[in-house]
Every structure is written in structure tokens, then in C-alpha cells.
């Protein structure tokens, strides 16, 4: 074997090992436990799990809801419900969560935040830009029964109004320095603002910065 091939072979093997490590570390999801699978199915379909068994990467579940029995299959790695089959007790099978997601995805753009099974419909929350839509989807046909929307308001810091009055601020400043009031100004901030009270006495002249909510003297500037 030529000597120059050895470094190339070493590099190829190192890359293969690194790729295998990354795939197993970051892309192989931790499978959910049997308890978690039961909790997820009962939460989504508002029913009761009567039997569960694991087959390879899937849980096979028997679920009862409103007098009907369903066979449910859920992927242990992705939590996706891959099959929902009516076994007995009803004439028409429910749509699966995956089917509902496809119906909503074809109906409108946006990110599906949640899919919740109610007594008579699926409640689906979809977020698109600054709008959140709530869709009611028929359990069996996938028809959109109704929709409502809420506009998301951007979080903005709200200015807190001052609690103490201008006269109270003056009294606080006069307790620090006896004299005459030259001026009073108010500056608005997000935490309640502050007063600037200028007091002139025989020997001193000072500006007191007084918090508009607590009345605390924040600073004193001598002139």
C-alpha cells in the first residue's frame, strides 16, 4: 500500500466515526415510555387505554371512548399517531391527529401549536405571523366547522405612572434642604418616573431627584 493512502484512509474512518456519533447523539430521539404513551393517547383522545404492548418502535394500544373501542398505533420515537382504527361500538372512525394536521395544513399556512380532541370536534390552534387562529374540525370528516382569530400584541414596556404628587415631592425635598422652590420637573420612565425639585436656600442651591413611586431621593446635585 502506498504511504500517501494511509492518511486518507485515517481521515475517512475518522469522519465516519464522527458522523455515526452525531447521528446517534442528536438525531435519535429518546423513545417515550409506556406510561408516557398512555398519558399522551388519553390526553389527545379523552379516552381510556385498556391495553398496550410494544412492537419494535411502535406502541399498539386499545382505547375506549364514548362506548367505542379503537386500535391506536403510536411511534415511540416521534410521538406521532400513525394509525387509528375503529374496532367496535361506532359506525365511523375518528380522524387521527396526523390526518387533522394534514387537513389544517392544506386549509391554511402557519405553525400548528396544538391539536386537542373535544367531545364533538378537534380544537386546533394555528399561529401565523401575529395571528393565532382557533379551528373547530369535524371528528370524522375533517370539515372546518368554525374559526376564530386573535391578534397577538407585541410586548411593549408600559410606563408606570407616578404615585406621589408634585406637592409631595416638594415636601420630601424641603425635608432635605429648607429653602424656596425654584422649579419642579417630572420625567416619565418605565418604572414610575422621577421629579427634579430645585431648592434654593441662603447658603446652598440643590436639585433633588425623587422617585415618582417610592418617594426615595435618588440623587442630590449641588449648584
Task: Give an overview in words.
- The protein is of the alpha+beta class and 223 residues long.
- It folds into three domains: 65 residues, Nuclear Transport Factor 2, Chain: A; 62 residues, Nuclear Transport Factor 2, Chain: A (Roll), CATH 3.10.450.40; 57 residues, Roll (Nuclear Transport Factor 2, Chain: A), CATH 3.10.450.40.
- Helices cover 26% and strands 41% of the residues.
- It is built from four helices and twelve strands; from the N terminus they run ααββββαββββαββββ.
- A four-stranded antiparallel beta sheet has the order 1-2-3-4, covered by helices on one side.
- A hairpin with a 2-residue loop joins β6 and β7.
- The longest helix has 23 residues.
- The termini are far apart.
- The mean pLDDT is 80.
Can you give me a brief rundown of this structure?
This protein is of the alpha+beta class and 223 residues long. The chain contains 4 helices and 12 strands.
